[in-house]
Amino acid sequence: MLYGRSDEISVIDRLLADCRTGRSGCLLITGEPGMGKTALMEHAASAAEGLRVMRGTAIESEAHLPFAGLHLLLRPALDRTDALPAPQARALRGAFGLAPAEPGDRMLVGLAVLSLLAEFADGGPVLCLVDDAQWLDRASAEALLFAARRLDAEGTALIITARTGFDAPGLAHLPLKGLDAPAAAGLLAEHAATLSPANRYRVLAEAQGNPLALLELPLALAAGRPVATGQALPMTDTVQAAFLDRVRRLPEPSRHLLLVAAAEDTGDRDVVLRAAAPLGCRPTDLVPAETAGLLRVDNRTVRFRHPLVRSAVYQAAPVSLRLVVHTALAEALHRPEDADRRAWHHAVVATGPDEQVAAELESTARRAIERSGYAAAAAAYERAAQLTESGTDRARRLVLAAEAIAEEGDIDRMVELARHGAASTDDPALTVRAIRVRAAAAFHHGLLRTARRLLTEAAELTRDDDPALAAHMMLDAVHAAWYLGKDEIADTADRLAALPLPPEEPLAHVARLLTWTVRSAIGQGDRDHGTLTRRIAAAERTGFGGPHDTILVGATSLQAAGQDTEAHRVAGELLARCRDRGWIGRTPPALACVARTSTFLGRHTDAWDEATEALNIAQELGHRQWIAEISGVLAYLAAVTGDERRCHAFADDALAAPEPDAAPPGMSWAHWALALLDLGHARWESARTRLAALHTGPVSHQLPGLRSIPDLVEAAVRLGRPADAREPLARLTAWAHDAAQPWIDAHVQRCRALLAPEADAAELYRAALRLHPDDRRFERARTALLYGEWLRRVRRKSEARNQLRDAFETFRRLGATPWAERARAELDATGEAVPGAGAADGTGALSVLTSQERKIIRLAARGLSNRDIAAQLFLSPRTVGYHLYKAFPKLGVTARTELAALAPTDAAP
């Protein structure tokens, strides 16, 4: 019986009940030591009738070994690994040391865990229990939590226990507090009925509702040992004192054997006994510890009954004895596969510089990186550096530690290690690598001015010896400067152009294209369309330089050049590569680029789904730069629908400025979004003010700058201030000339129509409508609305109705509610009554689906299997099947073959 935990038990029972019906769920139970986390987990195990149970307990001494905790948990399911997609199977085997490891995205292992759990659950619902998760190695914790947040319809229940402070965003959280007074008294009465009233009061006061203390402190009192004098001891010290009292009553060989077991990582009984033998211990010395309830022993393992026993034994031992034990363990771990554990035991013993141990740790770190265990690698590199004499090797190992921890996103720690590494050497190459780490940290923090400065410094240090490396850093510097202002971007682009890159170097083509794009955006340099076309072609022939970041640069340059369809293709191919290879950490910028082009192409539902997915991943990874920019795109899409609340919320996130005196990364998109929201609601003055600030501010060169000019012209004309539109229209006209894209020409004609005398306006509007591509329906409808409004004002009501009717129907299908209301009001003014705009119908049925269902349906319509869709969307196949099952009735279809006939939807969310 668990006293005082009825509410917690009901939560667990509901989770298990849902699991039996095929639904998945996760629960994180946290509390201070002894609060009953493990007891609740035992209740879950005992109540798991009809479920298969997988269990794992994290161990503090294994926290530096990548994927150690995950391996213990998943051992029962590893025979299903062959059923996973090949990249996931390779990543999982490599992580667990079952096959040669391949460097890759650390999140790919998390996706493999999700798929493996889904495969295992295919044979029936599964309960996964993970105890003491605060001791999980970083790689295991990341992979497990990544999978946990994506469990949906696999029939898997996951319960994790951890001490207070364990961070697991996105999981249902059940924090445990001390038992209330009646429950505490009941527990104590059942287990210590012979306590005197005075001692019962003392135990209740000391325990403060901690169940473990309520059970253990009476044992200390029964042994005649005072629990405390004067003020109450901290709870952890009190409980540990109770454990140590029982340990101290054991024979010395048993105490030594307990210490060996506490220092050993895996609980391997044979290793523990081999290491304990030089200390005079025999297998029979396990018996007193087992009889005292401190250990549980079977044919293979030695396990402590509670983690506090392990902690108490290890922490109370003299340091000299601990060193003897670690030496014995290092000697006992003689197999090649024990190299990493052996290295760490040697590292514990080392008290000064020791190159042999440092080299062992460096090898351990390299193996960890091959398995994407970056936190473990960083720890090994850092300890190796501590055991290295001052000089180049020490600096190199510190920089390697910084680079490894950069993959984990521990920004402050990576900066600290990089600075120490740079301060320990005069080697220019190491200095450059340290600066790049610091720049990456600054960029992810949104400190773009700092990132640009550091990257420029690093590029200058290596421009003559390695111009290709310098070019990579300057491309990153241009990326950072793009968000700062015209002066910064111009200076950075000039530095990039001045690098002595060989003509055959692929990066040279990307550098020339980016330089052209920057100078065009800020109104400088060669604006000839032929030059642009040649540079795009040259960059594309080299695959935009090959690496992920340079392909993004190429796609962004295409967007700046107005070539949205081509940009969508390039970014889409990059996104497909990220999905196929499980590069989850690289997905947000690729998704953001695809979402931008979908927005520009008028595919608003696609854009919403892409941007939402990008935002979720960016938030999970803590990428503040991408969080801000993606929030701006989502604010724009919310503005299309007229959703004031969501638009302002996303705009606030986009306008969050992490760096003083620098423009927020999402500022241009936020201003454009809020202005579009105002235009939809006919708030002309507010729209003009926002757009004027965008066009005269430091980020007018960014993508929203040119693309929002038609909105500025419309607002200015509505306010009777046509003069405010002349200069922006001239910029738009110049861009149209440079880009030679019909859709930009359509915008120019629409703006001219707004400013034209009555005799010329009609032809200009008709020219704009002819130039609008069919797939950019939102902008075409806006032109039709403006033309219809003009026709009504000049009393050509019959013609006005045709234009306004077309605009109204398009806006209604797209879910652009305020724009549909504007068109309806104009139709009413012509004498044609129409119903209210209502909800979007999504040109068919996709608008009735959730965002997740829409993404799955689109991929299923292309013929992808559930397994392929799962790999694309970082879900499990069972979750894909569940959402298809939910979506089919909404769409009125009964087979996958019918999905291809659904009309494509570009409705706003």
TrEMBL record:
Transmembrane portions of the chain: none
Sorted UniProt keywords: ATP-binding, Nucleotide-binding
Ranges for domain HTH luxR-type: 842-907
Gene3D superfamilies found in the cross-reference section: P-loop containing nucleotide triphosphate hydrolases, Winged helix-like DNA-binding domain superfamily/Winged helix DNA-binding domain
The organism's place on the tree of life at top rank: Bacteria
Any Pfam family: AAA_16
Protein name: AAA family ATPase
UniProt organism field: Streptomyces atrovirens
